[in-house]
Amino acid sequence: MTSPQNPARVKEAPNLAAWRETIARLPLTLRPILNQQLGEWDTLFPFEQNKFRGFLDGVNSFTPLELDVLTERLRKLELQMDVRHWKFSEASNTMENAAELARSEYYRQWRLEIQRINDAVDARTLQIASKEPQRKRLIVVILPRQLPVDAHTAWEHWKARGDGIRIAGGAEEFSDLLVKGGPGQPGIAEILTRDASCDPEDLWLIDSGARLNMLLPSAFSHAASLSYSALKPLRDSFLAGLNTMPKSISSAVEIMASLAKKDWTPWFPPELAGQKRLQRFVIDLFLSGNGALIFSNAFVEWAASEAMRRARPRVLVARFGMRSKPKPFTSIAIFENQEKVSTVPDVDDPANSAIDAAILAHYIWLAAGRYPEYEQSVCLCISGSLDSAWMIAPPELGLDHSTGSLSGDRLYDTIEKWITT
Amino acid sequence: MKAAAALLVSEWCASQRAVLGQPLAPAAKGNSPKVIVVACGGVRRFETFQEKGLVNIPHLFGELLPQSLFFPYIRNAGVTSHYNTISSILTGAWQRIDDWGKTAPENPTVFEYLRKDLRTPQADTWLISSNKALTAQIGASSVRDYGPKFGANVIFPKQLLINAIVNAAAQGRADHSAERAAMQPEIEAMLAADNYEGLGWSVFGGASALDAPTRASVSQAIQDLVTTNAPVTGDEFTLLVSLEILRRFAPSLLVITFSDVEVAHFGSYSMHLAGIRTMDRLVHELWNEVQSNPSYREKTTLFVLPEFGRDLDGSVTNGFFNHRFDNDATRLTWLMCLGAAAKRGDVVERPIQHIDLCPTIAEMFGLKAAQAQGTSIPEIRI
């Protein structure tokens, strides 16, 4: 955690020329995402780099004849789809690529073929790669006290798995302790550094406000910490750039490309200074939409989901917050800077912020469920207003919470042990 | 706001006289059927006609369902983008065209079948939309022998408000004045402009400058709009314009598309639910208007349907935010049919498709949608 990238997880230097040759052997529609990753190599997270290498190693393990057989159906589909005559970018995944594919009458078959090929290559990769040990992980999602979560419906999204618990000493106080630490109780960042193979991106703190970053001990400032409020100058500037976009896809593609290439360094908050990967991550997040530029809680959910997809952190702490009430014209011009559109002062909207946060908190857990790396995970969703939490834990955690109540210290000890063993 | 809606329609009247020199009243009169279609964006069954969603649709469920012919399973098997879906509903054939409306539908729309075969004027068919993803191309196909000369009037009332707000914000005026008042000069400036294309209007042609009396009424109406304290949503404004169209032109076929629910793309579930409740209320208001308007009472059939659902919670496409996942949560939705062609309240569980609507409507007018792929829904008959 003390260096930007742990040498233990850096594999051999990239062999870009050889990888480009391998990509060129693949069908057309498989190339954009791989070429895009090559072009952004230095800003990929270690997990992405390893996955990329693994995939191409898997491809190279097929003989030319085997690869032809594996990809024959996809190549035929591409002919039927007439991809060669589309304005289809091989260099990167563009909006236009996605739109062309989605409106093809062969789209469903195409997706199935892509899935079949990926599965076959992944199976090969598993055969030839050294098996990484399954790591234990932790996801903490915080609905802070100012969000009045409805006690009757608070956990209705979660009921398929897990249990409600009370945390003696305060649920939100427990989450503070976990991040900041206390006397004789190191914070989560320090706990993680006991593992020599730990990377900075093994801990992500994603916050609608700035509290998590404030709680994080300064010695561990290399952790991936993103604050929606701290990103305000960047968001405002980015939104202004997006709003120059006319309503035509060719303009949209051009403007998105120019926004992607622009140097946004001056607009990043100090805690992200020099963190090129995280800066790129934020720009990618804003470019991919999903409300990350508009609503703080959408930012928290989407950033957390993308962090798990791209970096597979061992510990992720996500903290939701308050949004303002819609102003008279908000729903009509939602993509505008609301401060400029209206001089009506911002007024908190606690009830609806709680509704938004409740479903988005569950979406974070659902996102984790898509990846095998998170099979051994403990998930705590903490509600400050209810002073309780929902906990999903594998039996291996060994925590008896049948009484429905736990002391904060006991929960802390159990989680510390879980992460470090 | 009502006055603002009325003035928009007044402007249309004025320009229509000058440009086309046609009578304003539609040709179809007497007992000929009237059809209104309301497409309400992407709405999952879960948030509407399933147990936990009923609270969001008190009017649709409590008041309109008992008198409707209800189809709980209608499938969108096409491209689940707005432009392609609305085009598919209108043409009865799955459209696979540019998602952002750069090209016209590739099969004749129900507007064109109606206007060509019944020789009705343009004022007899309208599409009024809140949705920014549509363009004026939606009103007519690119098919030879059909096309814009048989197309519908297409208007986007919400665009007027958006542009006013954006202009005010861009010029910094909103920083120094009350938020509604800041919009007033912007809206007036746009109404006074020579070319309405930027607002998505396809009815004006090139000669749309307003005369002095109309402009005066415009100013008064905008004044009314900006001084009201009622919250403004795009769909509310769209409905008000639609009601004005109904009252002044009594068109035979009116298609309305709402889009407040699309705030879901930005991740606010509570605002998405508020959009559903607004839609529920506005459909009820529309139905009440149909019941009280002599031109529509007892001869109108109202269809209400979501364009598609939204993606499943936990999907890689981020659940309710989007509508592109190939799953029943996105593809399977419901259709409510009220009025003249729904003789008795009933639930028809047989699955139907969005492309079945066009041939069904055509048949209600005694026409055949020759190029539609869908099939007429037998339970819906005049």
Report what the structure shows.
With 421 residues, chain A is α/β, with parallel strands linked by helices. Chain A has two domains: 122 residues, no CATH class; 284 residues, Alkaline Phosphatase, subunit A (3-Layer(aba) Sandwich), CATH 3.40.720. Chain A is built from 16 helices and ten strands. In chain A, the strands form two sheets. Chain A has an eight-stranded mixed beta sheet with strand order 6-5-7-1-8-9-2-10, sandwiched between helices. Chain A has a two-stranded antiparallel sheet with strand order 3-4. The longest helix of chain A has 22 residues. Chain A starts with 15 loop residues before the first helix and ends with a helix. The N terminus of chain A is likely disordered. By secondary structure, chain B is of the alpha/beta class. Chain B is built from eleven helices and nine strands. In chain B, strands 1, 2, 3, 4, 5, 6, 7, 8 and 9 form a nine-stranded mixed beta sheet that branches. In chain B, helix 2 packs parallel to helix 9, helix 5 packs across helix 6 and helix 8 runs parallel beside helix 9. At the A-B interface, helix 6, helix 13 and helix 15 of A face helix 5, helix 6 and helix 9 of B.
Give a quick set of tags describing it.
heterodimer, A: 421 residues, alpha/beta, Alkaline Phosphatase, subunit A, two-stranded antiparallel sheet, 16 helices, 10 strands, globular, B: 382 residues, nine-stranded mixed sheet, 37% helix, 12% strand
